[in-house]
Task: structure prediction
Amino acid sequence: MLKKIFTVVISFFAIFSVFADEAEASSATDTLASVGKGALEELNHVIHISEFAKYITLDNIIKVTTSVIAIIIFWLIYRLIRHLVKRGASKKFEPKTVKIISRAIAYCFYVIIVVYILGLFGIELTAVWGAAGVAGVAIGFAAQTTVSNFISGIFIVTEKTMKIGDFIEVDGVSGTVDKVGLLSIKVHTVDNQLIRIPSSAIINTKLKNYSTYDYRRYVFDVSVDYSTDLDKAVEVLGTVPSKCSLVVTDNPDYPPKVLLTDCRDSGIGMNLIVWCKRADFFDMKTEVCLNVVKAFNENGINIPYNRIDVSVLTDKTIPSLSFKS
Result:
């Protein structure tokens, strides 16, 4: 409407200029043209402002104010919940687990804020949730292994089956844990190789954690001849733990034991069961083996082993064979 009024005014001045002197008319026309151009620019600016101003209503101001207040309230509640959860979780979980829980709470807070504000302005989320559901199903089928590892990683973190620095064994792979993630864990073996184990493999197979307890048991298996005095063999084998400095002998919960186990093809099986501190396990194995062999040799106890007899046949020793038709 304003543009139409302005156009009529400009036309009136143009008609008036026809009856004026030609020089004056030309000068007046140029002046009016420049004035009209500036007025049009000013009018367009006013129109843009008026179009923006139509959104500044009491209802929208209330909505914006409510959103700001809601964000502040949600933020205070979020900080309080995060503080309480972190303080409680830090007593039961590892620092890495507490960090994951805190991050999950932050993501939930962001989602709640976005959904609340969009709903406050009347934006329907039904179609968005429907599209997200379809996309989630498609992504789930396309990344089943990743989803499985992610869920398994959550169970591993919450169950606290291991922590960084533990020595574990999974499906024949053993090593020290370097990193525990949601998708996988990383360990380095005794020969200093890095191995990545998927989280689902840990959940679906047997996990051995050798670092959970302070003491480890070792069973030393040995055989003796059938002609051996078994009472003497048991007595000699029972003296070995006292000769090993790394074997625990003064703890009644972990006493050394000697057992006769079975009758084998080449001898009678015996087990020496001893305990040691977790850090001394590998050195203790060497110490026990060395002292068992030394004790048996000193007491004339023979450890049987498989032998192969080789006979060399000459032409004279080979019997002649004759065939009758």
In short: Residues 94 and 163 are 8 Å apart (CA to CA). Residues 22-53 form the longest helix (32 residues). The chain has a mean pLDDT of 76. The chain has ten helices and eight strands.
